[in-house]
Amino acid sequence: MEQTASVNADPGHRSVTNGRCSQWRNWTGFWFLGLCNNFAYVVMLSAAHDILKKQESENATAPTPPTVAVDFQGRNSSNSSRYDCNPVSTAAVLLADILPTLVIKLFAPFVIHNLPYGVRVLFCVIVAATSFLLVSLSTAVWISILGVIFASISAGLGELSFLSLTVFFTRDVLGGWGSGTGGAGVAGAFLYSGFTQIGLSPQITLLIMLVVPFAMLISYFILLVPPPSLPQWRSRAMEYTAVGSEERQRLVDDSDQEQQEKSTPTDDRSTGPLTITEKLHVIRGLLKFVFPLGLVYFAEYFINQGLMELLYFPNFFLSHAEQYRWYQTLYQVGVLVSRSSLCCVKIRKLWALSLLQVVNAVLLLFAVRYQFLPSAWLVFVIVLYEGLLGGAAYVNTFYFISKETEDRQREFAMAAASVGDSLGIALAGVAAFFVHRYFCSL
């Protein structure tokens, strides 16, 4: 009897163990998906800049007019502005990298359900790998720019697809996704800088990073444990058609034709694909999430791309270029920490995060104008705090959308809401561009 009892207990124990293993694999899988999805997007800006600079030097076969010289301290030697401005704002590069993502997020949620998840992931992997190859092997400026656009397309389509994918798993995978996207900024910056610092060329560095799209492929198709309901190779429309056919067949078997006619309309209204009217209704309900998220990202990217390069302290032990790199690094560290915090703390008051981020932007705007901050150390603290607010806003926004949206609407809602951060970033790029021009004219 004891032996029988122990044997009977084994399946239950194995079931619990397998469930925990699957849960851990899914969390880890989404962490790597977040890391890989944003990695090319993060790396591509600095890599494309390096390669474009190299191409300019290689193509300079004829005498050219005198150019702006930059000394070894990262200071513009021909710049007369007290802000030590670069000729072109970093906001201009930001706009080139964010606009393709914004266009995808605006329109793709309405049609992306026709593309199975397996096909979407394969497309993102191919496009990301192509972006690395184009920029690393390019021989013309337009090819490098095309590579940056490809990286933006991959990141935009991947983000809305993987956010939609989370609805098929337990809600804790959102924490893995958020932490992975936060880690992409830190890992991308450190790995690219590290490889180039030890002497590898930007081209070779980008070819090495082709392992990242391959890691995305492994994470999705091998590491994740997908549920049977996941439409891996069939579109959502095909799934609804198959389910509808099975239900109608059961109705024919279990009841007469009159009962079938009464039951079918009710089922269609509750299980079929969302209509355009229903999608617009969902979007109206998402505005309370999208506006705060967009405002947070508008404020923080206004700081990052419009003000950081103007927050220069000449008497600090770091050069201007080094100060800027540390601003960006500390921001990414803050994002990583807060996007990984969902398992510890959840913040429902998203507007509070938005207002605090706006206060940061206004404070630093006045600091640039009147230069009252005593040291870069204080800016380091503010920038780290800025990253904490931005990462918390992102991961909590999608957690509460997932929690408060109806089951049938959740997949579309997660994809549609992803436009919030990209829209805020794009608007911040425009604002930062003009602010940069204003201050550099003083």
Structure summarized in a few sentences:
The protein has 15 helices and no strands. The chain is mainly α. The protein starts with a helix and ends with a helix.
What can you tell me about this protein's structure?
With 442 residues, the protein is mainly α. Helices cover 76% and strands 0% of the residues. The longest helix is centred in the N-terminal third of the chain and has 58 residues, at 2-59. One of its GO terms (biological process) is regulation of intracellular pH. It holds the Pfam family CLN3. It comes from Seriola dumerili (Greater amberjack). Residues 245-272 are annotated as: Disordered.
The 3D shape can be described as globular
CATH class: Mainly Alpha
CATH architecture: Up-down Bundle
| Helicity range | over 70%
Describe the largest sheet.
Answer: none
> Distance N terminus to C terminus?
89 Å
Nearest-angstrom radius of gyration? 25 Å
Low-confidence stretches: 1-9, 61-74, 242-252, 254-269
Helical/strand content category? mainly alpha
Order of helices and strands: HHHHHHHHHHHHHHH
Secondary-structure topology with pairs:
Layout (H helix, E strand, L loop, with lengths): L1 H58 L30 H18 L9 H21 L3 H25 L7 H25 L4 H7 L2 H13 L12 H19 L2 H15 L4 H32 L12 H20 L10 H21 L5 H29 L2 H11 L1 H22 L2
